[in-house]
Amino acid sequence: MRDSFLTFSPPSIGAEEIAEVVDTLGTDWITTGPKTKRFQVEFAQFVGADRALAVFSATDAMLVALAALGVQPGDEVITTSMTFCSTVHVIEHLGARPVLVDVEPDTLCIDPRAVERALTGKTKGLLPVHLYGHPCDMDPLLAMAEKRGLFVLEDAAHALPARYKGRMVGTIGTATAFSFYATKNMTTAEGGMLTGDPELIERTRIWSLHGMSRDAYNRYSEEGSWFYEIVVPGFKCNMTDLQASIGLAQLKKLPRFQERRREVVNRYHAGFAGRPEIQIPIERPSVESAWHIYALRLNLDTLTIGRDAFINELKARNIGTSVHFIPNHLHAYYRTKYGFAANDFPVAYANYLRLISLPLHPRLTDEDVDDVISAVIDVIAKHRR
Ligand SMILES: *Cc1c(COP(=O)(O)O)cnc(C)c1O
Hints:
- The protein is of the alpha/beta class.
- The chain folds into two domains: 15-251, Aspartate Aminotransferase, domain 2 (3-Layer(aba) Sandwich), CATH 3.40.640; 254-383, Aspartate Aminotransferase, domain 1 (Alpha-Beta Complex), CATH 3.90.1150.10.
- It contains 13 helices and 13 strands.
């Protein structure tokens, strides 16, 4: 057994990030300024998007995108129960109704057939989530949206970088939200990015900074002017140049990070192959996953313990794990407000009971990965039915 605890998902920060932040602190622009602008440009280039808007989080990116897309009380937005709560919260924040649907059994991404059944005259848009970094089946969603004039806002908090049928995530739907939270594939401590067409991004930028018709950089820099106009009751979720500094350095390292993630995934796959007690995550042939999370599924009928006990057994062996996610329809707020029962979304619920996310990040050594594999196999051996 390993003698130190293996952290589930620490950030990978180095001298480059520190130098870039120190450089920014020595200038007069510590909040939204030249580095944020550069980060937006370099990020848009990286994913091949027309334009990008840097904000304080992926949650904010989705909130301001929905506001700019005109979501309001009376509207419905269809999303998945199997996501982080904030994907659903942002719809509530605008007074609209989040319509939850079930997921596909292999990827646990939103099920296009369930989306089709949930469409009503009030549906304003779709909010698919590329769960664990595996792109959703976008073609049927885009076709539905096209036919009915709906927006498709993608939650790509896990999906940097990922491809669907050769297309980079960030260039597919109406707009795409990325996260730079501390645990994500690259980080700015807190941060997010929205990609989309220039007209929508510029409208969203106004929503992200008080509803002002000019941003702070233009107002106070020499070539700017003091005048601004408030055109909508906007939010305050602009990215700072301190965050953008970390992001500029992280973006350069992202291809290397991804290479290491894939090596870790392949090592897990090989270590777990041919074991009837567990199901390993898949990657459909038509996609390239960003492999944000390695979600193992227990075949509970082959074991004498459940998922929660399995997690405790791994913790006792110094392996940190997590669960992604507790489906939103099980949470008190949504369960009570919309009267959900656990089995309303049977695929999400049944899989929730058997999910364990294993450590997956670029700092893992082969020895760390082997420790995780040995621990999982040891727990299986001791609790085989
Ligand atoms: C992390 C995460 C978010 C929220 O990202 P923030 O940048 O922390 O706001 C949204 N959706 C999913 C699926 C996530 O994992």
